[in-house]
Design a protein that fits this description.
The protein is α/β, with parallel strands linked by helices. It is built from 21 helices and 18 strands. The longest helix has 18 residues. The radius of gyration is 28 Å and the shape is elongated.
């Protein structure tokens, strides 16, 4: 007898549908799995045998063939155990085949018949919804996560016996409800905690308002890391669709918290500078998301930027502009989302002090600076020097605290609202404005155009740098509720763009 069960597996960060076809026929006892199964899939037959025996439903001495269609795509993971067991029971007549219609099954089986969680449940639920299936059986540990996807009845199961009872009609399904949304944002570090650094705070607000990348350069203890950690608090909360995107990536990576299965806050990732290229952009076999994908729709903080391997840093160039990373393998290619906001921090030289206090040799300083290539720096919108905090700012009156996170967040929200009205198809961010629309959206006054022309000649800005400068100026104008870009907006954008020019971070021409 032939039985077909619908299942799903994770390919990249997408759920892919799979038809699990089981054929039981006369012949020498043999269990074969075809359809390019990986090791965990092939070993699943032993788990299925033991789980069925534990429920009292042993397999007869028959020839059993399991086909995972489409057969030309490699399949990995342990989530096929449950659908294979269900298809076997249907083929042997233990459960009615009609109950399998419009249902999907995913789950790993234990030897005692328990159903264990799998990675990427939210991506699997999205695929189930796209296939038009009404009900998805998932491990109980994944139920709250999968239930975040609207339009699918998610049934969490804890054992194979429970699945049999549900399919036979002996038990009533308990459909999992969506997880409770957070009623309020948890406390975030306050921008007012950073004493002084008025210009750096201004750059941080501009970066948050337009989604721009930011590089802070200054001596140790100036507040670079404190500023970076306060950027997520300035960003608006994730929309529902964005929350599902972020949750899907973290689910595939196996990083979700069971008590809080849905991400509602923008991610903040700060990898150590010893990270490998695969750890940063993703890799492995099968490929897993890297840090840039885990920072999707959030912030990627690269502290001590020149200490990263130059080969590792160069891998960022394409994802920064494209918003995704594509990892090619022999048999397939995986695409991970990577629309993140970069904020980086560095010292001006190896010893960090620069100026008269610097003890570095010229050769060491040149080697330190060469770790940051021109093409990479060309993709960083804002490059801001951070000076040491003065004694008066550190111990002075409250005026030294300056802008607080609440006030800055309101400014960012207003600016982003203007961008969303102007750019509804580009996530409402000036940093993502297509090149073909830059000159139209960033309309210059005569004085602003003349100032920009002089800046291009003086600082030898590339075409990419000119467009990025215009995008920053557009964000500055949005913060001030101005329509056209005049001298004030262009001057501030140029200062933020070339603030480190001659300070030791721009490679020589």
């Amino acid at each position: 007898m032939l039985a077909v069960v619908h299942s799903y597996w994770v390919h990249g960060v997408e759920g892919q549908p799979v038809r699990v076809e089981v054929k039981v026929q006369k012949g020498l006892p043999l269990f074969t799995v075809v359809g390019l199964p990986a090791g965990a899939v092939r070993e699943g037959k032993e788990r299925v045998f033991a789980a069925l025996a534990h429920t009292g439903l042993g397999l007869p001495p028959r020839r059993i063939t399991v086909n995972l269609a489409p057969a030309d795509l490699p399949k990995s993971g342990s989530g096929f155990d449950l659908p294979v067991a269900v298809a076997l029971m249907a083929a042997l007549g233990h459960i009615p085949v009609a109950t399998l219609d419009k249902c999907g099954f995913v789950g790993e089986l234990g030897l005692d018949g328990s159903v264990r969680p799998v990675r990427g449940a939210i991506a699997l639920a999205m695929s189930c919804r796209a296939e038009g299936r009404r009900r998805l059986f998932v491990p109980g540990g994944n139920a709250r996560e999968a239930a975040a996807v609207p339009g699918v009845d998610v049934v969490g199961v804890w054992s194979l016996e429970e699945v049999i009872g549900l399919l036979r009609g002996e038990l009533q399904p308990r459909t999992a409800g969506p997880p409770d949304a957070l009623k309020s944002r948890p406390p975030v570090p306050d921008l007012a905690d950073v004493r002084g650094q008025r210009l750096a705070k201004r750059a941080l607000v501009i970066a948050a308002a337009g989604g721009h990348s930011l590089l802070l350069s200054g001596p140790p203890g100036a507040g670079k890391t404190m500023l970076a950690k306060r950027l997520p608090g300035l960003l608006p909360p994730l929309a529902e669709s964005e929350s599902l995107e972020v949750t899907r990536v973290h689910s595939v990576a196996g990083l979700l918290d069971g008590d809080d299965p849905v991400k509602t806050l923008r991610p903040f990732r700060a990898p150590h500078h010893t990270i490998s290229a695969g750890g940063l952009i993703g890799g492995g076999n099968p490929p897993r998301p890297g840090e840039i994908s885990l920072a999707h729709l959030g912030v990627l903080f690269l502290d001590e930027l020149p200490e990263f391997s130059r080969r590792v840093l160069e891998t960022l160039r394409q994802p920064i502009e494209s918003g995704h990373v594509r990892i090619a393998r022999v048999r397939h290619t995986v695409t991970f989302p990577a629309r993140f906001q970069v904020i980086a921090a560095m010292n001006p030289c190896p010893c960090g002090m620069a100026g008269e206090s610097c003890i570095c040799a010229d050769r060491d300083v040149a080697l330190y600076r060469s770790r940051l290539s021109g093409p990479l720096l060309d993709r960083i919108d804002l490059q801001m020097p951070v000076a040491p905090v003065s004694w008066s700012d550190l111990t002075g009156a409250d005026e030294a605290a300056g802008l607080d996170t609440g006030s800055a967040r309101r400014l960012v929200a207003v600016a982003r609202r203007r961008q969303a009205e102007r750019l509804p198809g580009h996530r409402g961010l000036n940093s993502m404005l297509p090149s073909r629309d830059v000159l139209r959206v960033c309309a210059l006054t005569a004085a602003g155009g003349a100032l920009l022309e002089g800046g291009v000649a003086t600082f030898r800005l590339s075409a990419r740098a000119v467009h990025r400068t215009l995008r920053v100026a557009r964000t500055i104008a949005d913060l001030s509720d101005r329509e056209h870009l005049g001298e004030q907006e262009i001057a501030e954008a140029l200062r933020l763009r070339v603030g480190l020019h001659g300070a030791g971070t721009t490679p020589p021409a």
